[in-house]
Write a structure and sequence with these properties.
Layout (H helix, E strand, L loop, with lengths): L2 H10 L7 H4 L32 H8 L3 E5 L2 E4 L1 H20 L3 E2 L5 E3 H7 L10 E4 L5 E4 L4 H9 L10 E10 L14 E11 L2 H22 L4 E4 L9 E8 L5 E6 L5 E3 L17 E6 L4 E6 L6 E7 L4 E6 L8 H7 L24 E6 L5 H8 L5 E6 L21 E16 L9 E3 L5 E3 L1 E8 H12 L16 E5 L5 H13 L1 H4 L3 E3 L6 H11 L3 E5 L1 H6 L1 E6 L4 E6 H24 L1
Parallel strand pairs: 3-7, 16-17, 17-18, 23-24, 23-25
Antiparallel strand pairs: 1-2, 4-6, 5-6, 7-8, 8-22, 9-10, 10-19, 11-12, 11-19, 13-16, 14-15, 19-22, 20-21, 25-26, 26-27
Helix pairs in contact: 3-10, 4-7
Protein name: proline--tRNA ligase
Catalytic activity: tRNA(Pro) + L-proline + ATP = L-prolyl-tRNA(Pro) + AMP + diphosphate
GO molecular function: ATP binding; proline-tRNA ligase activity
Length: about 600
């Protein structure tokens, strides 16, 4: 084809008059989304069976052309993946705007000295990607931005009249995971939304926290995927009040404990077993473990039960745990409350750890479940040559079990769900403002530390979780709000390109009203191949102009998630799509309530 004719094809969209082999060479610039213009490098046949990998969702994201792996735990997003990310970000922007938050974009490079000042650099060396410039200045790739944003605010805000302040960003974060896995669910580079809130008083900060929770529930409700909200441990972030947002999944690394009757819901890290003070017996069994290294051991003599001395033991210490014989699974989080130095990498066992098989330990720490009679334990220990510290637990050391009575309402029972954490809200108080000198003058003209909160959503993790949770034997199946395109349109037989365009235009006229978008599959592939590819990519709706269109101007519309396949007139099409978009969202709510 001559250059002149190709140019005419581009300008005047004469593609319908060209031979099929020439169609492929035409660049469509009519403003319509077309797969012939859209780069979707599947690299693998849509006809292949699903892989038996660790995460089918990640396998499908790769096969369908959403992403490619660059390095271990690091991924490149391709056009389809970027559309999903942008839609998640757009939904975030909507709810952050409703919250009164301003969007910023902070540098991915942070100062190691700043992290040392906040106290978070020590003990976390293995998690950081560290670097130095040519002058030897120490930097790191930021896994989060509390230090940087607090410093900015400390230098810019000086009066309580400048507060409250709410700032957020959606950006790349970095964490040198020891074992990246499950694709986007546990990577070393990831996209996260982080919101930082600043208030002049603790009371105002807690009100802000409640407002953020409302915004988060709105965001996850709009996403229309069943989710769980659970009380959580603040961990290294600091603060004393936090909640997690989870998508239930057997692939999840968290366990959420919730009640069948009330709103009680917590991460298993917070579970502490209540015991009846009268439920004490003489029978027991002993489980062994050890500490990681240096441990503070308080020497207690059994006869006098008086503390003799407290000195650090600079080697591994034997840990003996006395529990009722019917306890089969121990709560490692409860044990860590009593002994933070406990080495959780060492499996709890009825046998002595190998380190102590041949020689007596320099010291021993004994932990007692309150259901084991203390006098029996003391008698069992008897005289001993080693330094020993006895720690009595005030709560049972059992793991939570499904079917237990709810500790909050007592009428419901507990159920345990494996889940993927996709969001977390933290009330920080003055955890960062105090060491980083973020202060304001209050109404009494006194200098006070700013009360803070930080609130995250794992954007790339959410993409990976949505892909994994909604996949079936045919491929991905995106929620309406974050699908790369809501509708894909294709033709069969001798249907003209103009007819396909007319259907596209009818949907596009109502795209803002319906909050949907469409793309035309005009690639030179058989209809069966294109239908399989559409299932693989996971468009919520597939529209085919085929026999029904030729006979009575009706399109066939398919929705795999709803098990739907119907013929609809062009006049009724947009109303039909809007109705079934609502059905898809309600279907997700019903799944959550169920």
């Amino acid at each position: 084809m001559s250059l002149h004719r190709l140019w005419r094809c581009v300008l005047h969209h004469k593609s319908s008059t060209l031979a099929p082999r020439q169609l492929r060479r035409c660049l469509h610039v009519d403003g319509r989304n077309r797969l012939s213009n859209f780069w979707t490098p599947t690299g693998l046949s849509s006809h292949q069976s699903l892989a038996d990998g660790e995460d089918v969702g990640h396998d499908l994201l790769t096969r369908a052309g959403f992403l490619r792996q660059a390095h271990s735990g690091i991924f490149h997003l391709l056009p389809l993946g970027l559309r999903v990310q942008n839609k998640i970000e757009s939904l975030i922007d909507k709810h952050m705007s409703n919250l009164g938050a301003s969007k910023v974009s902070l540098s991915s490079i942070s100062s190691q000295d700043l992290w040392a000042k906040s106290g978070r650099l020590d003990g976390r060396d293995a998690e950081f990607f560290k670097l130095k410039d040519r002058k030897g200045t120490r930097f790191l790739l930021a896994p989060t931005h509390e230090e940087e944003i607090t410093t900015i605010v400390a230098n810019s805000v000086h009066s309580y009249k400048d507060l409250p302040l709410r700032l957020y960003q959606v950006s790349r974060k970095y964490r040198d995971e020891a074992r990246p896995r499950q694709g986007l669910l546990r990577g070393r580079e990831f996209i996260m939304k982080d919101l930082y809130t600043f208030d002049s008083t603790e009371a105002n900060a807690l009100e802000t926290y409640d407002a953020v929770q409302v915004a988060y529930r709105g965001f996850f409700d709009d996403l229309a995927m069943p989710y769980l909200m659970a009380g959580a441990d603040s961990g290294n972030m600091g603060g004393n009040y936090s909640h997690e947002y989870h998508l239930a999944s057997p692939k999840g690394e968290d366990t959420v404990i919730s009640c069948t009757s009330c709103d009680h819901s917590i991460n298993e890290e917070l579970y502490r077993e209540s015991v009846d003070p009268e439920d004490v017996g003489a029978e027991f069994r002993v489980v062994y473990s050890q500490t990681k290294g240096e441990t503070e051991v308080k020497t207690t003599w059994v006869k006098s039960a008086v503390a003799d001395s407290t000195e650090p033991v600079r080697s591994k210490t034997l840990v003996t745990i006395y529990i009722p014989p019917y306890v089969t699974q121990l709560n490692s989080h409860a044990l860590k409350d009593l002994l933070p130095e406990l080495d959780t990498a060492v499996q709890l066992s009825d046998q002595l750890p190998k380190d102590f098989e041949d020689e007596a330990p320099p010291a021993e720490i004994t932990i007692r479940d309150p259901r084991v009679d203390e006098s029996v334990v003391l008698k069992e220990l008897g005289p001993f040559p080693v330094r020993r510290d006895i720690r009595n637990s005030s709560f049972g050391l059992s793991q939570a079990k499904s079917g237990e009575k709810c500790p909050k309402c007592t009428s419901g029972t507990l159920q345990l769900n494996q889940a993927i954490e996709v969001g977390h809200t933290f009330h920080l108080g003055t955890r960062y403002s105090k060491p980083l000198a973020a202060k304001v003058l209050n109404a009494e003209n006194k200098e006070v530390d700013i009360a803070m909160g930080c609130h995250g959503v794992g954007v790339s993790r959410l993409m990976g979780a949505a892909a994994s949770l909604n996949a079936d034997e045919k491929g991905l199946n995106w929620p309406v709000m974050i699908a790369p395109f809501t509708v894909i349109i294709m033709s069969a037989g001798k249907v003209s390109a103009d007819d396909v365009s007319s259907v596209y235009d009818e949907i596009s006229k109502h795209r803002f009203e319906l909050d949907v978008d469409a793309i035309i599959d005009d690639r030179e592939k058989p209809l069966g191949w294109r239908l399989k590819d559409a299932d693989l990519v996971g468009y919520p709706f597939i529209i085919v102009l085929g026999k029904s269109w030729a006979q009575n101007k009706k399109v066939e519309i398919q929705c795999r998630a709803l098990g739907l396949r119907e013929n609809v007139t062009l006049q009724d099409l947009t109303e039909f799509i809007g109705l079934h978009c609502d059905r898809l969202r309600n279907h997700a709510v019903e799944r959550k309530q169920g």
